[in-house]
Amino acid sequence: MRVLVVSTPIGVLGSGGGGGVEHTGAMIVSGLLGRGHGVTVLAGEGSRLPEACAAAILWSEPGAPQPSWQHRPRQMPVEIPANGLLPRLWQRALERQRDFDLILNLAYDWLPFWLTPFVATPICHLVSMGSLCSAMDEAIEAIGRWQPARLAFHTASQAADFALTAPPQLMGNGFDLDRYQFVAAGDAVLGWAGRIAPEKGLEDAARVAALLALPLRIWGLREDESYAAAVEAMVPAGSLQWRGFLDTDRFQAELGHCRVFLNTPKWNEAFGNVVVEAMACGVPIATYARGGPGELVVEGRNGSLANPDDLDSLAAAVARAGLLDRSQCRRWSETHHAQPVFIDKIETWLQQVLNLSC
Ligand code: UDP
User: Fold this and answer.
1) Which CATH class is domain 2-174+338-356?
2) Where are the domains of the chain?
3) Mutation test residue for ligand 1: of 179, 274, 277, the one with most atoms within 8 Å of CB
4) Is 194 in the pocket of ligand 1 (CB under 6 A)?
5) Sign of CA dihedral 178, 244, 263, 25
6) Bridge partners, residue 5, by sequence
7) pLDDT per position as a tens digit, 262-313
8) Substitution site in 251, 261, 275, 281 for ligand 1 pocket (most atoms within 8 Å of beta carbon)
9) Is 177-336 in CATH node 3.40.50.2000?
């Protein structure tokens, strides 16, 4: 297949601004290249692809980034800034569509969903988040009614947010597990990673770490500085160890030393890359029984589940998770979330769309 992958218009690839979508895109691109497909990536100017994607062609466009749907009221209308990156990406994609068999959209934005039925080259959408606003729900559900095969999701919890007319196609997510080193024993420290933003619920992890008198190591992009400062002020000085946003090699090297990894989303997290990355290093998870992470964690196998937003329940989950066999966590990631497992699903999905469109 000749595939055009259109990336997110929110951040430049390599910056972390695109969150988990950057990782997902890199896994898809390197995975499809490895299976002999031709891949072109279309992304914002200044984007860099990881080494494993070196055989892909990178096209970039300038333009103002798209505001994220994450922090906006549900009834917010669709907004596209002047000189917007989003329309530039899609102008290029549509101009060059005949050079490709398929276009894969990774962006959670109205425009690519809306234009899909009118484009000759089939466009498929890997939806990266759950329901956040009515305009996006409508756009996603309209594709679901028109041709459900064009949509894929990461987890059942995420897909359940949308009114779909057919059972959702679930891709999970994939990881190059050779890059994550197993650490057999954790230190007396807890871990948390993700964008530092309210929907990620860092305050709950900070409070539970303080309750258990263990330091909490934090990795991720400080998307919201005032939120980060507010969390810091909630716990005794020295409880939090801010590690910044690290590249995967450095991130995993530090992550593996945690006794337990906490994941505390306040929203319906679509997947939760960091949960699998921690497991891959042998770190058991304590998370809420909610959204993607609640689906990825199996009590007593790779972590422990807590009642959502219940700090006592989360503290108890941390204690249980700390007793688990770390090699079992690593094995779980190998069986369920290795890159080839993910690429099998992606390849089958894209091929199916291609067959339907012929
Ligand atoms: N991440 C990273 N370095 C860090 C912290 C996080 O590369 O120091 C990456 C991590 O590998 C993951 C992404 O940030 O792929 C966060 O994705 P996740 O699905 O957990 O949340 P999202 O940001 O998409 O809501």
Assistant:
1) alpha beta
2) 2-174+338-356, 177-336
3) 274
4) yes
5) negative
6) 41, 104
7) 999 998 999 999 999 999 999 999 999 999 999 999 999 999 999 999 999 9
8) 251
9) yes
